[in-house]
């Protein structure tokens, strides 16, 4: 599937799977991204942490936990 946008370098990304589609969410700061990711997980959503986009691939792609805040 072709994306119709460019991903911002230095932003943190994660997917929230909703039925047949995945919603891509980004945040500027790591702490905010982890908090939002954990909130989605807490309410039972199927989420996938992608990490920090460096322009070519994702860095910091290990799944965050509350201890990493």
Proportion of residues in extended strands: 25-35%
Q: What is the overall shape?
A: globular
Oligomer: single chain
Order of helices and strands: EEHEE
**Number of DSSP-assigned strands:** 4
Low-confidence stretches: none
Major sheet: order of its strands?
Answer: 2-1-3-4
Major sheet details: 4 strands, antiparallel
Spatial gap, N to C terminus = 33 Å
Estimated helix fraction: 10-25%
Q: Roughly what is the average pLDDT, rounded to an integer?
A: 88
* Structural class by helix and strand composition: alpha+beta
Query: What's the total helix number?
Result: 1
Please compute the radius of gyration using only Cα atoms.
Answer: 12 Å
Task: Explain what you see.
It contains 1 helix and 4 strands. By secondary structure, the protein is of the alpha+beta class. A hairpin with a 2-residue loop joins strand 1 and strand 2. The longest helix is centred in the middle third of the chain and has 13 residues. The mean pLDDT is 88.
């Amino acid at each position: 599937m072709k994306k119709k946008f460019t991903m911002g370098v230095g932003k943190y990304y994660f997917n929230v799977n909703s039925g047949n589609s995945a919603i891509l969410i980004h945040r500027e700061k790591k702490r905010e991204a982890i908090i939002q990711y954990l909130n989605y997980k807490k309410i039972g959503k199927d989420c996938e942490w992608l990490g920090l986009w460096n322009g070519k691939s994702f860095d910091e792609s290990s799944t965050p936990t509350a201890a990493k805040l």
